[in-house]
Design a protein that fits this description.
This protein has about 160 residues and is of the alpha/beta class. About 30% of the residues lie in helices and about 20% in strands. Helix 2 (about 95-105) crosses helix 4 (about 125-140).
Length: about 160
Amino acid sequence: MSRFRRRKHEVPGLNLASMPDLIFTVLFFFMIVTHMRQTEMKVRYVVPQGTELEKTGHKGSVVYLYIGHPVDEEGNETSDETRIQINNRYVSVHEIPGAIAQAREEMSSEDRMRMTVSIHADRNTDMGVINDVKQALRQAGALYINYSATNKEKDKNSKQ
């Protein structure tokens, strides 16, 4: 029995030589794939639900118009009044044609032809405000308008 001695085997250390390569590869992947928000949200809105939804294309030709309650930098609502935001600034209904014209000038000639205004309005916004915005967009020559909504069937399935 003395011939068979047990040697203590140590577990070899983990080779971490390729770890920096993996970290930088994952970091590079997320930098490429992530889409950074270009507009700072100054209003809070809850998107209404819809049943007949379709995605819009041509991201460069879309102007986003937000309607909701104003929020501060931390995301807390500051008042109950309804505010309109285009790009990074508040506008009144009368300033919408000028803001749309400015956004149109910043686009390429191809994007100007198919410019679409995407309205992201709070579900509790008065229809009078929506109609005033639509009239101002008509004056600005922005005739392609879509409304943002969530899919009603998906919301039902996710709640169950």
